[in-house]
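Field: COMPLEX_INPUT
Field: COMPONENT_COUNT = four
Field: RESIDUE_TOTAL = 432
Field: MODE = joint
Values follow.
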Amino acid sequence: MDKKQLTDRQEEVLNFIQQFLQENGYPPTLREIGKRFDISSTFGVKRHLDALTKKGYLNILSNASRGITITRNEFESPTTINIDEVNNINKIPIVGRVAAGSPITAEENIEGSIVIDPGFLKKDADSFALKVKGDSMIEAGIFEGDLVIISPKATSVSGDIIVARIEDEVTVKVYENRNQQIRLIPQNKMYEPIVIKNKNEFSIVGKVTGVLRWLN
Amino acid sequence: MDKKQLTDRQEEVLNFIQQFLQENGYPPTLREIGKRFDISSTFGVKRHLDALTKKGYLNILSNASRGITITRNEFESPTTINIDEVNNINKIPIVGRVAAGSPITAEENIEGSIVIDPGFLKKDADSFALKVKGDSMIEAGIFEGDLVIISPKATSVSGDIIVARIEDEVTVKVYENRNQQIRLIPQNKMYEPIVIKNKNEFSIVGKVTGVLRWLN
DNA sequence: ATTTGAGGTGAACAAATGAGCACTACTTTT
DNA sequence: AAAAGTAGTGCTCATTTGTTCACCTCAAAT
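Field: COMPLEX_OUTPUT
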């Protein structure tokens, strides 16, 4: 059953309903939808809604005005927090940067930016954000998919959460420099600290100054 | 101006509308409100709505069915503007504190603002942020001092992290609505779920759509 | 004693709104 | 070539729903 397959038109309609709801706090009427798409007949609109209902995207109350409900089938997630499968590599794609800063490694696909109110925090302008992959920092409240905000200028001391580069990989860990030995300590009992032997292959990208997470 | 002063009856009606919206995704009609309170005439209901409108709690569209909008004056911060016209950036005001442990009263002190690139964030413009106090959500990665970003319009389903009001206090918990019973579930083994008995004293402030944490 | 305001009834009415039918046009599938 | 699916028009029709009026009750204020 390929119920999920929507036509372009149907998707447009669905998007409009979603947007309308968001902006107004109540669903649109058939005629309001029609007006948006230059559909003069309510019947034409209704058939779009029927199609969307049949495909499981909407729920419509009979004879009730504005009785449209969007069924959120995508997220039916349980309440628990995922201690998911062991994901050894903490690869962090770059998602954006705030200001023109020192360019960091490879993939520079900017997806957006985060700007901090200067009155709220005296950040340096070179900060940028990376998306976290892996679960080695969950005990520090940093989960997969979170954005970490990184200050490349800040000096790091033992105990700070940092972003480090080891060879060609970038990882988030707690920094520890004790007796000339540098260790990167995960915040997850399932992982072991990383001991840096060859300092040539290691560098500190920056200090983590913030964590941002979007739900849903 | 004692505009804010509501009668018991008016407050009941307001709570019902809020709850109805939450549960159904669209506002109630006059008759649906009337049925709930055993008010046989729509005129009686309408005068409640008019009173609530006059006092600034509602917004009603003339001649539109279900055209009720709740104006969130409890958390509304007139001093902040949601859109930074220069940079086309969405600004999210930071309003007060929410208790994640034992609920505390939300103070209305604005502590700053977060600015988010709109392309990065498809949330509604009514979002605001609260600072978390307490540790009842640490297993969900929400710690004391974190800012939670709240969407007041979003409808919540079981499993969502929400901000709820219980009597005069505000708290962050996982929402669960099962078999007509609403429970607020902490994400910390040391706390017990809160069972909602009196629905009149409970309302959902909004859904948590983001978490932001500053280190140092 | 009178006024005022909150809360309510019952009925009537107009506007808003969803439901449905017959028919057209176009594209894709069979 | 025929059938099926999508998209739409114009038009009814029945409900749903908001608006309004005259009138009532009760408690608090003047």
